[in-house]
Amino acid sequence: MSETTVQDQRTVSGVAIRLEGVTKRYPGQQKPAVDAVDLEIAAGETVMFVGPSGCGKTTLLKMLNRLIEPSGGKIFLGDEDVTGQDPDRLRRRIGYVIQAGGLFPHMTVGTNIGIVPGMLGWDKKKIAERTDELLDLVGLDPEVYRDRYPKELSGGQQQRVGVARALAADPPVLLMDEPFGAVDPITRQRLQDELLRIQEELGKTIVFVTHDFDEAVKLGDKIVVFDVGARVVQYDTPEAILAEPAEDYVADFVGAGATLKQLTLTRVADTELHTPITAQVGEDSAAVVARATEAGEQYVVVTDGRGRPVSWPSVAELSRTTSVPGTRDDRLPVVGLRSTLNDALDTMLAASQGGVVVTGRRDSVAGVLVVEQVMAAIQATRGETRG
Amino acid sequence: MTSATDPAVDPAVDAQADVEPGGRRDGFSWRGLLLQPVLVLVALGAFAVWRATADLTDAEARPLAWSALLGSIVDHLELVAVSAVVVLVIGIPLGVLLTRGPFRRATPLVLGIANTGQAAPAIGLFVLLATWLGFGFRSAVVALVLYSVLPVLRNTMVGLQGVDARLVEAGRGMGMSALAVLLRVELPLAVPVMLSGVRTALVLLVGTATLATFIDGGGLGLLITTGINLNLDALLYSGALLVALLALAVDWVGRVVETVARPKGL
Question: Which chain B positions have a beta carbon within 8 Å of A326's beta carbon?
Answer without folding.
Answer: 4
